[in-house]
Amino acid sequence: MHFRFQRLKQLAQSLLKHLWGSSRIGWRLARMSLMLCAGLAIIATMFEDRFIYYPVKYPQGEWDVSNPLAREGQIVPGIEDCYFSTVDGVKLHGWYCTPKTRTGRELIPVSTQMVLLWFHGNAGNITDRYDMIRALMQVPVRILIIDYRGYGRSEGSPSERGIYDDARAAWDYLSGERGVRPEEIIIFGKSLGGAPAIELATTVRPAGLIVQSSFTSIPDMAGSVIPLFPGMLLRTKMDSISKIGRVSCPKLFIHSPGDELVPFEMGRRLYAAAAEPKRFYEVPAAPHNSTWMVGGKTYLEEMRSFVESCMPVKK
Known about the structure:
Blueprint: H1 5-20, H2 27-46, H3 48-52, E1 54-55, E2 75-85, E3 91-103, E4 106-109, E5 115-119, E6 123-124, H4 130-136, E7 142-147, H5 160-175, E8 185-190, H6 194-201, E9 208-212, H7 218-225, H8 240-243, E10 251-255, H9 264-273, E11 278-282, H10 291-310
Parallel strand pairs: 1-6, 5-7, 5-8, 8-9, 9-10, 10-11
Antiparallel strand pairs: 2-3, 3-4, 3-7
Helix pairs in contact: 1-2, 5-6
């Protein structure tokens, strides 16, 4: 995830350091500091979509995933392109990924019951998640990962209401056209994707919800970048902190104190506001985009444990 708010933060810190580092600090400097913060707040509200969403459109990205390299016995994703439409008529694209193992010259599907419905972060498109998809095949689990409107091969332009509609369309496609039972679907929201994941989980009944490296709300994120930021000026809310308590399914929260983009305390606040059953997995010293890599084997074991705990009981 690459919040463009980070650029404002760096500018604000640089200018404030210069001002307050002067030999004499008086009310003029204080007023200038407030004016600076106000100016940055105005810029952020005028161009908020550009600071929140950072889509990369097709053909940018590595789209040739039809013949994955694999050693004998290695599990890799077999990927199908899928298309479906939202309630407001936007055509979306995603990948439906099935774990397969190399046996001789063939890729044989691996038996797995659960499906991960994945909503990714704000930068790039689904191709940027290919390495993580390969890693999660080891769980094993099937994955439907989609590009929001305006990303990758999906039509339209992103907005808060829009990505909520995108999430619901993905759920309907998975549970309808693909015929996957709700009790076999785990919703997974990473970073920005935590917002549509939590929103969706308040309206459907999934087997579980995973929220990784996500925030409490967009105004909170803006306030962490620009001190005293007037969050009420933002149209985009993504108020996950007020919604998470209404999610009744089992929940797994993943975050790292080393996250340089989304404060660790936001992940802890989401966890604290959530109802049981829930668990929190802390990955030490992991940058925002490297949580799964730093977590390594332990990360995959935690994911496997949660997925298995969400499996429906066989009668």
